[in-house]
Each structure stands twice: as C-alpha cells, then as structure tokens.
Amino acid sequence: MIFLYVQAASPSQATLGATNGIAQTAASIARAVGPASATSLFALSMQRPDIMSGALVYYILGAVTIVAIAVSRMLPSDPHAKLRGKSVDEMGEPDEEHTEEF
What we know:
single chain
C-alpha cells in the first residue's frame, strides 16, 4: 500500500525508478535497523529496571506507534488524486506532437 503513495509522489514518470529505489532503500534500512534496536532497547529495559520500572521499551515503542499513526493520518485518502488533475504532458510523458506513428 505504501508504494502507491511513493508512485504518486514521483514528480514524473522519468523519475519513478529513482523514487522507488530510494523508498526501497529506506525500507530495507528500517528492516535491518529495527529489530536490532528494538532488541537492544528491550535488553536495556531488563538490565535497568530502575528506568520506568523496566517498561522503557514499551513506552518508547508506544511513542513510535503514536507518531507513525499521526504521520499516516496526514496522507491523502486517494494517493492518485493529484495525478488526475494533471495533463499527460505535465506528468513527463510525451505529448502527441513528439510521438511518431509507425
């Protein structure tokens, strides 16, 4: 679902590949860093029960969840709504004057 928004955020069809590549890279980094950081945070919570009674990991992950929900609420309900208002020429595709029939 998120890649529908990535496609809609691309300034033109010519840059869609680069935009998708950046999004895939960011998702891969998050998938690599996320488990390690969550595990380390859980270990810290267990080693230091004096910090929030050992529940530090749950407070931080709860805060991350609230921020993610707040950010997702800012997304448009229809990711392609802005593309419907553009002409084909504005989207970066060639218009009829620049295409040849074979």
